[in-house]
Amino acid sequence: MSIKVNDLTKIYGQQRAVDGISFEIQTGEIVGFVGPNGAGKSTTMKILTGFIPPSSGEAWINGLELIENSLEIRKHIGYLPENNPLYHEMYVKEYLEFVAGIYKLGKNTKSRIAEIIEQTGLAVEQKKKIGALSKGYRQRVGLAQALIHNPAILILDEPTSGLDPNQIIEIRNLISEVGKEKTVLLSTHIMQEVEAICDRILIINKGKIVADDSIEAIYSHSKDQQITVIVEFDKITEQKNIEKILLVDKVARIDDKNWLIQSSSDEIRQHIFNFAVKSGLSVLSMQKKEKSLEEVFQELTK
After folding, report:
1. Mean pLDDT calculated for residue range 171-178
2. How far apart are CA 200 and CA 32, in angstroms?
3. For position 10, which CATH number holds?
4. In a domain, 173, yes or no
5. How far is CA 221 from the centre of its chain?
């Protein structure tokens, strides 16, 4: 496996920024790491990249124990911090040459820089100073430096923060592409981003992991398992009649013919059809209102 974390804790004074978390990420997975501000995402990422030590607990990167092999582990990780610190006075290509030198790429430097510039879409901007680039292109430079040494693992902290919609799509596509061959741990506040590119989601709240599952299965972690159905009848009916339908828990009127019905049973739809037949109504449409990832996230991090 690429990343294994066991009972990892980080304490600042009286505050447990990370509180005994454990998880594993397999080779080739793209995992979304989400939580409210101050939940412990960035702290966890800084520990895994060797920038700060844990107070207790253990972590392994590509089979290497984190504390004992901190320098060696950094060769296996590409890290894009939240604020993407760059040398704005350097030219794009110059900066990548500088980073390649740190990783001692040697005779492969020139070909690798050319490859990574092409991969990250920086070709048209490679002769500009980083400070003259748009934020979207600066994010690409940040990703380029994280990829330059061809790491097995990418740890990306808010990679699309502050970008416009077009730039977000471009960066997402780039992450999806490189994620086919690497392990990616991605922190974000954007749930659509998680749904678009991640295989799995880790939700952290107040330093603790509160959910760890596939995108499809994460909805089962919702505390509220009620089913919501939106129904349109062909005629007007009264709310008190709908409230008498078997297994109905709650009814809300949308307009004269459209109703929102909640139930704790998936059989509610059959009972709605039965009600319509007995009442001389036709069901023009019926759809189950799926709970959004944002709603599940809010429930788990209140």
Report:
1. 87
2. 6
3. 3.40.50.300
4. no
5. 16
